[in-house]
Each structure stands twice: as structure tokens, then as C-alpha cells.
Amino acid sequence: METLAALAHGFAVALTPMNLLWSALGVTVGTAIGVLPGIGPALTVALLLPITYDLDPTAAFIMFGGIYYGAMYGGSTTAILLNTPGESGSIVTAIDGHEMARQGRGAQALAIAAIGSFVAGTIATLALTFVAPALVKLALLFGPAEYFALMVLALTTVTAVLGDSLVRGLASLFFGLALGLVGIDLQTGQARFTLGIPELLDGIDTVVVAVGLFAIGETLYNAARFRFETEEIYALEGSIWMSREDWARSWKPWLRGTLLGFPIGALPAGGSEIPTFLSYLVEKRLAKKPEEFGKGAIEAVAGPEAANNASVAGTLAPLLSLGLPTSATAAIMLAAFQQYGLQPGPLLFDSNPELVWGMIASLYIGNLLLLILNLPMAGVWVKLLAIPRPWLYGGILVFATLGAYTLNNNVVDLVILWLIGVLGFAMRVLDVPIAPCVVGLILGPLAEQQFRRALAISQGDPSVFLTHPLSLTLLIVAALLVAGPVILRRRARRAEREAAAA
Questions:
Q1: Cα–Cα dist 13/56, whole Å
Q2: Domain spans of the chain, in order of start
Q3: Are 439 and 154 a contacting pair, CB within 8 Å?
Q4: CA distances (Å), 379 to each of 114, 219, 333, 389, in order?
Q5: Cα–Cα distance between 268 and 42 in angstroms, integer?
Q6: pTM of the prediction?
Q7: Cross-strand partners of 191
Q8: What distance in Å separates the CA atoms of residue 502 and residue 488, rounded to the nearest whole number?
Q9: pLDDT in tens, 117-160
């Protein structure tokens, strides 16, 4: 009952005229961004961080939540009509969705994706409503040692799962941790690594780093890869309304995709890519006509698109209740919390219930707004692809530069922004994951504080991290996540050598 009462309060917050406006703006911007290939929700939220600096936190996060959901919706439009996924979670949708468009069923494919996204998003948000408070009760058992272990787990999971190479992930993480050391030590009052620059005494602004890595670096990378080729867009033909057969073949994949997307999105190794691929495999295994897969199967659009959108709510559950980011967008939203001096976790539910429950309630509203936006206006969103990409990328770079400067009105931030941006471009070229750097910058100083606090309470005894069962469990899980992939790869290589020798 407490959860329902809190949700009702959240709806009272989200249904105010201004917050409704921010929600509508968020889902509209998110959908538009999702349609544009190569520009995802992480880049968009990073780009808007400087602009929302003076905005009310509740309104800002209602808009960010709308952007996150909207980008997942919009990514399916280009995946189906252009065979170019606007978001990584739409890669699987493109396989059969584009085939449907080539067969003149693009309108039906978009309807299946939009309604499936609405169904999955609503069910997953309902799950978030009840799962997040349960995780908060668990987090209330945490002391300094447990919080340090949790942050170690967060650092290692993002490092291990958001890249193909553990070494590259660790390199990105340690770079972020190094950036987090710049500034005045909160316990001793000594300046660290400021190079005599007064503007660095308060540390390197998280927003500047996030905008540099995601907006500047990502845009430079996309511009460098851009080819001036004519892209064939399949026009929408026929009615957008689904037939009775379409409904019959879609509703079960929608539910199965939701059941896969939410829990996997909440896991440290989650994200949207894994549940969408799993959903595709499950639907192909259960299909009455598996030979249709790859040739325009309805189930291959319905299931993965539902899993894609359900994973968003799954990602928000550990972020809000534990401060644990499991995706790049979640890492940027963590930076947004820090921008407002907030730390996601159990205290956030007590100190800022309007923000947490207002954001959760706005996700229900945003889902409905997205259904209204996407079904009748699919043709309008496709016209965004006519924007010349040089103009688009140039606008993003100018927008990011001006936004970063307005944070503190000093040139040092601009120098750091572009140095970090060029480094972010190099990281993308070398396939170094970017999210661990941002998470290291945010969680590094917090982990250091909890580490020192735990040692102060135990009078310098480091075994405090091993004698507390919860802390020990979290550290063991973190160690397994780092060592596990290495051990599995070595076993696979050994098995290959033995097979070759045999």
C-alpha cells in the first residue's frame, strides 16, 4: 500500500502542467534523436546536461526519462524503413522489420513496434514501481564497507560488460578515477593534481567530461565515418492498423520480450542488446514457421522491440535504488544526479520522493504519449533523415561548446571539454568503452570516502571489508566478473588447441 500511495503522489507531481510539458518535450526529443542514426539517448542527455543546470531536478529527470524511452521507440523507425538502427537495441528489429518494409508492410511493422513498445514499457514500469522499493530495503542494510563494495561492483561491472576487451575497459576506468582525484581532498583539505590552476580546485566538472566524451567525441567519430551515399528509404504504404492475424502473432512475443527485457536490463551485464538477441532466438525457436525469420516475420519485430523497451525500466531499477549504472545512458543520468548534488540510493527515496516517484509516474504518461506520437506521425519522423549530416554534426558541436561554457563561464572548461572530446574520439576509434570513464569519475571519489570511513570505524583494520557478509559477497561477485571472462576465454582457447591437435 505504501508503494501505491507513493505512486499516486508521483502522478500528482507528474500531472502538473509544467511537468507534463517537460515529459512531452522529453519523449518528442527522444523520438527525434532515436530516428537519427548514430545519436542515442546517452549523447542527448549529455548534451542537455548544461542546459538543465538551473532547471528543477524533478522536471529535468522527467524529461530525461522521456528522452530515454523516446529514443528506444524512435530507433525502430530507421531500423525498419532504412535498415539503419538509430539505437543499438534496434539492431535485431532491423533484420525482419526492414524486410517487411521492402514487402510493402512497413506501416504494419512500425505499428507492431510502437504498440509492443507501449505494452512492454508499461508492464516494465509497473515492475520498476515495485522492484525499486524492494531494492531500497536491501540497500538500507548497507554500511560504509558495504557501500564501498557496492561501488567496486559498479565500477567492475561497467568496465567488464560495456566493452569487448577487459584491458580497454580497465584503461577507461582508471582514466576516469584519475580525473576524479583532481581537486581538493575533502578530508585533508590538500589540493591534488590541480597543476596550479585555480579553476581545478573544485575538481573537473562531471558534466564537462560527459559532454566531451559523448557529445564531442561521439559526434567527431560519426562525422569521420560518414559516407556521402544516397540512402534508400522505403515509403509507408497501406493502413497502419494491424490485422487480426498481426495481433494474434504479436501479443505473445510482446509479453515474452517484456519478461526477458526487464530482468536482464536490471543486471550489470544487461543493457538492451542482450535481451533483444535472446528474444529473437526464443521467438524463432517457438515459431510455427521459423523459415520466415529473416524474411519478414512479425514475431521477430514484436519480441525484440518489446525486450528493447522493457530493458529501459530494468536499467532504472538499480540506478534509482542502488546508484548502480548498467548502461551508458544510466552512467550519464548518474552524472545528472551529481550535477544536482544528489546520490541515487535509498536516501534519495526519503529525501526526494517527489523526484523519484514523479519520474516513475512520468514513465507511464510518457509511454502513452509515445504511442500517440509514433503511430500517426511515423512519416513525419522519417523526414528528419533529410537533415544534412554536416549541419547536424556541426550544430551538435556548437551546442555542446556553448552549453559547457555556460556552466561556469570560464575558458578552462572549454579547453578541458575539447581535450576530453578529442580523447573520446580516439577511444571510439580504438574501441575503448566510454561509460567506465564517466562512472569512474563519478563513483571514484565516493568510493574513496566510503573506504576511508570504513577504515576509520574499524580503526585501520582492512579486514572489515571481508568480515561483513554482504560486503564480502559483493567483492566476490566483482572479482568473478573481472576474472570470469578471462578464465572462460582461456578455456575456450585451450579447447580449440586440443580439438586442433586431435
A1: 12
A2: 2-501
A3: yes
A4: 13, 26, 30, 19
A5: 17
A6: 0.77
A7: 184
A8: 21
A9: 888 889 999 999 998 888 888 777 778 888 888 888 877 776 65
